[in-house]
Amino acid sequence: NATGASCNVAGLVGHSNLRMAVLGEESFERPATDAERAQISELTAQCLAEGAFGVSLSFVDSDSRGRRVPGRQASPEEMDDLAAALADAGHGIVQYVPRFMRTEGYIRDIERVTGFATPAGVTQTYAPLVVGRRDREKADAVLARTRELRAAGHPVWPQISPRSGFDAPVV
């Protein structure tokens, strides 16, 4: 059409980056202390004030040395703190990568984020919702649970990913 295509882009601050800034290398090994959690919250608030659209999390990624990314060491209290920082800022989302390899982990992570994001009034979005021939049953189950959560008032949104690498050999 005459207007062409457009892109929606939003800068997010990485939760693992926040943890590394406060805990250093120990961020890979342990949960944050109360004092460190307060620093992470302050840094999150600063990032949001300076233009970040929200916070990104991962429940699946590892670094180049095979270590779980620092965000995977976070306590439930730290997740509550992140949601509170977003709520206090008056804007922002939580975007995350759930454990999408198995249906149970996928849904558990969506419910986990719903548990700390919704009470704070924070919208969440997860990616990828892998859609392909081999993932049809999983995608249907995850979408069904997402619909249930949305019907119950939880602001959760999937991001669809038609990743051919998950469905067919990449040439």
Give an overview in words.
This protein is of the alpha/beta class and 171 residues long. The chain is built from six helices and five strands; from the N terminus they run E-H-H-E-H-E-H-E-H-E-H. Strands 1-2-3-4-5 form a five-stranded parallel beta sheet. The two termini are 31 Å apart.
**How many whole angstroms does the radius of gyration measure?**
17 Å
Mean pLDDT, all residues: 90
Helical element count? 6
The H-and-E topology, N to C, reads as EHHEHEHEHEH
Low-confidence stretches: none
In percent terms, what proportion of residues is strand?
15-25%
Which labels suit this protein?
16% strand, 5 strands, alpha/beta, 171 residues, 5-stranded parallel sheet
Provide a concise account of the structure shown.
The protein is of the alpha/beta class and 171 residues long. The chain has six helices and five strands.
Give the SSE map:
Elements: E1 12-14, H1 15-23, H2 34-49, E2 54-58, H3 76-89, E3 93-97, H4 103-117, E4 123-130, H5 136-151, E5 156-161, H6 164-167
Parallel strand pairs: 1-2, 2-3, 3-4, 4-5
